[in-house]
């Protein structure tokens, strides 16, 4: 039985076996080959401005589909896909969802580097330079016309402008916001404050916070983030509110290490440590303050109105309990928003399908996200002032529909609506700058003996470094 | 326990020592139960509290409210079955690759001793010294575009499986173990004309069961515990591991639902552990990493 | 010292270094056979070697290259020491090293010593060992992210269980994760709770292998409890202790998920920013792979020095 020949085959097969395993391992990884069907630009109709031919068969991957945690929005998404498929039966919308934030800056950076974004991907307005650096988004100027997006002319040019570079359009907006002061009406009443007159200056905020914190039971008067880039985001909002800047006009130098910066920092530090009105738990990031205010543990914080939808839907909060005033200080308010971009290199037909879907879902008055009657029926808040990027006739129609279906008491937003504050765009390299400023926030809010001058000086050095690195 | 330990039986036999022993024993059992079961109790019970109670200061030791719907909601929101399936798929795939490729390599280095074998082993052991996080950037770039074959492994299990093979510690353990198998045993088999593969299969592997157990546990636990790497290489939510899935959930749901989700996510492996604890424990200890 | 010997189940096999094949070089005439032997051997090796080449060695080389490169809108250029200068200019640089050192010291005190003490204690008990072992190992089985988030909840200064416990004991409440002086310790405590089970079980196995006569002999010499530990227990488990020390240091350097989730990574005033977290931050927050690689390279050089010392020491004892 053990002949020499047998031995040889066995040995050879051993070699073959092990190397085969490895080779298969490496060769079989074909599931996502690096080129994603680039080059097949403009299949079907060659005219980019022509709307999508309903007969075209394409599959679109898209992120930021509502997750199961947003049951109502997910239901609406599915209805919208079905509705959309009546016109375009051959377009398959393949949504991806994540229960947390759709976009986390570090993962987003990695995704762009890997070019692993889906065909249609969600970004913040501030992400455009980074996306273009990574050659990630298609120029859709030719695809977006009044034929493919009929209401194009009524979209606020400032909003569209933040999606353009060198005159080319790279995205379509889903929502925009300006920051204000979100208040918990119940706690305001409990503390003997008037919920219809939220504080308008930072001194008033401080006084109100002190009163609310006086209720005890672990209730904080005013809350702030200090981690996950959101600390820096809010520090920026506070700087803007007192008329300051974070990055100077040249876009190359930090501009917060000055009297205004110190004023903002001192105010926060005093509220946290002298008044003890900001709660003990810090290092919070997006999502945490919403949880606190939804459980009546927090009196107020800086927020965009669309936070209310999130709290109602995911945290089980009651929308009547919230109200909003303009940002304290009111010199400027941070304005931002989010949008979808389309991956560079996908086929012309896919781009057309993507534009058609985004138009239907996000840019049609009375449909998709602006179908207010349905929003009301699904128990989501209607009557929140934002997102609202419409002008002209569309604005009139849309505003009327909001009022007609309003579930939010309009009075709760009256001070916010009646006192508009000039919006100010986020700084260049926003996410990087925010990351650095997180440390300023966490320093102020966690260290009783924080050295404000040193915190700001350190952050200044780091921000300058970030801005210098292109 | 019949083996003689630090404290002599004679000493223990004294009445005072006996009392002391009992007291210490009670203290240790009580303390350990508190330290290790306490947090688990806290997790399970907090999952039943309503949104208000779960963030009450001071906290309540026994839930005053009863909200089992947290668990239903957590289950709906989390999609545990997909996450768990993904994680096990990655873990056992990684285990299979490690068992085949690393055992073959260790066997070769230990018994077949090719030229450059020592250099190769040295090259492998060097990687032990490098924190994974340091290499995460170049490794990530490599996975995006694997040299020579030019594949992007992102969102595929290969991104987990193949890097798992580069576990120098397992190779090292296996090789040390194989080294201690008497050469005469293998030589006799080779005289009989058995091929190296046959020797590996019918002589080496059966003896090596304990160490294979240890290496297997390390392999599975390695994937089970990993967070940063799967977070980067499996961005598609439907392909995520349990760890990354829970992390995504953490900002999106109220505290009580999140805690209920943590409980649900912990149950399957705790059950597996309780059922197989004998095997797992003996796998870890009988491997006898003895001084 | 030698690396741990894992005694095969055929117990009693004496431990000795394997015969050196190099000593018996084959005669020249058997070249062909030798070649075939080598081919077979490399055939067994190839799978692992390819994986190492692609996923370890190549990235190591690339790490070095990246440290001296810069990528600007798709264009990669050589920039010499610029990345290194960026890293050294960063105010967080020295803080990160200080934090890493602090973390390592704490992780060694808690993560290395505690499981050993626990194993020694458990080993003394004549009953309940199974239960205690089970308890200690339980946390290892939880998904780490679940454990970390659970700890975040336990640590909360308001509604957290730990402060409630302190109140119950009439001790001052702590800010745990929010206090720059305490945050690192809190991270290490959580990490130790989660991970000590594996080490404790391994120590326990090692302790059970110590021959009882050694203790008896020590007692005859009049040794007390601590001298017995010092002169018998520790020397007898020294091999496994030093191996676990090495593993603990490596694990310490890798730690990511605990600070990332407990303190948002950077921590209060950057007090949990470790070198490894700084690398992550450069790469994935600042999109600056060059700086990440430069800092990584510094850490590599340091660790290489460290491991050279380690290898030298272990070889010295091996001989």
Automatic annotation (TrEMBL), chain A:
Q: Could you tell me which residues belong to the region Disordered? A: 31-55
Keyword terms of this UniProt record: Signal
Residue spans with biased composition (Gly residues)?
A: 36-45
Signal peptide as annotated in the record: 1-27
What InterPro entries does the record point to?
A: Bact_solute-bd_prot1, SBP
Q: Where are the transmembrane segments?
A: none
Q: Which domain of life is it from?
A: Bacteria
Q: What is the designated name of this protein?
A: Sugar-binding protein
Question: What is the organism field in this record?
Answer: Streptomyces viridochromogenes
Q: What is the lineage of its organism?
A: Bacteria, Bacillati, Actinomycetota, Actinomycetes, Kitasatosporales
From TrEMBL, chain B:
Which coarse location class applies to the principal site listed for this UniProt protein?
Answer: membrane
Any one GO biological process: transmembrane transport
Chain ranges of the ABC transmembrane type-1 domain:
84-276
Which keywords does UniProt give here? Answer: Cell membrane, Membrane, Transmembrane, Transmembrane helix, Transport
Q: Which family is annotated?
A: Belongs to the binding-protein-dependent transport system permease family.
Stretches that traverse the bilayer: 20-42, 88-107, 119-138, 158-178, 199-224, 244-276
Q: Name one GO cellular component term.
A: plasma membrane
Q: Could you say which residues form the signal peptide? A: none
Look up and give the membrane topology term: Multi-pass membrane protein
What protein name applies here?
ABC transporter permease
Q: Determine if Isomerase is one of this entry's keywords.
A: no
Cellular localisation: Cell membrane
Classify the source by domain of life.
Bacteria
From TrEMBL, chain C:
* The organism's place on the tree of life at top rank: Bacteria
The record's listing under PROSITE patterns reads: ABC_TM1 (PS50928)
Membrane topology per record: Multi-pass membrane protein
Query: Residues annotated as region Disordered?
Result: 1-27
Predominant cellular place of this UniProt entry's protein: membrane
Q: Which GO terms describe its cellular component?
A: plasma membrane
Chain ranges passing through the membrane: 39-58, 101-122, 134-155, 182-206, 237-257, 289-311
User: What family does the Swiss-Prot or TrEMBL record give for this protein?
Assistant: Belongs to the binding-protein-dependent transport system permease family.
Protein name stated in the entry:
ABC transporter permease
Task: Give the species this sequence originates from.
Answer: Streptomyces viridochromogenes
Task: Provide the taxonomic classification.
Answer: Bacteria, Bacillati, Actinomycetota, Actinomycetes, Kitasatosporales
